[in-house]
Design a protein that fits this description.
Helix content: 25-40%
Oligomer: single chain
Radius of gyration: 14 Å
Largest sheet: 5 strands, mixed
Shape: globular
Keywords: Hydrolase, Metal-binding, Zinc
EC number: 3.5.4.5
Catalytic activity: cytidine + H2O + H(+) = uridine + NH4(+); 2'-deoxycytidine + H2O + H(+) = 2'-deoxyuridine + NH4(+)
GO cellular component, one term: cytosol
CATH topology: Cytidine Deaminase, domain 2
CATH class: Alpha Beta
Number of helices: 3
Order of helices and strands: HEEHEHEE
Distance between the termini: 43 Å
InterPro entries: APOBEC/CMP_deaminase_Zn-bd, CMP_dCMP_dom, Cyt/Deoxycyt_deaminase, Cyt_deam_tetra, Cytidine_deaminase-like
Length: about 130
């Protein structure tokens, strides 16, 4: 499908910005907004590992920094330089749950192209979220 080929080309163009001197594992996350804007994030490693920033959290940080809200998200595309599908880690899932709608579509890509479409709720079915502390 042409749309997926264009998305993959965009995601691939951002791989060069990943800072992964230790794992060499590149991940790119692009948040596509309803107004046509694209918010991007790449993974950024650190020798201490704990301060490493995943692509999903980098993108969500940019979304918030630029003043956008979850209702403006059309979908999120996630790419990993891998032969298998890779999904957000637990920390990213919890972080995303704070800022995006659980019905947000994720388009999953890897080095072989488009893999599948998932709804965010599938990644974190029993989340602890802000509704519990209101």
């Amino acid at each position: 499908m042409k749309q997926y080929e264009e998305l993959l080309a965009h995601l691939n163009s951002l791989k060069k910005f990943c800072y992964v001197p230790y794992s060499k594992f590149k991940v790119v996350c692009s948040i596509y907004l309803k107004n046509g804007k694209i918010i991007n994030g790449v993974n950024i490693e650190n020798a201490a590992y704990n301060p490493t920033i995943c692509a999903e959290r980098a993108a969500i940080s940019q979304l918030i920094t630029n003043g956008f809200k979850d209702e403006e998200i059309k979908y999120i595309a996630l790419f990993s330089e891998s032969n298998i599908p890779i999904y957000p880690c637990g920390t990213c899932r919890q972080t995303l749950s704070e800022f995006i709608d659980f019905n947000t579509n994720f388009l999953i890509f890897n080095s072989n192209g488009f893999i599948e479409k998932r709804v965010f709720a599938e990644f974190l079915p029993y989340s602890f979220n802000k509704t519990y502390i209101k």
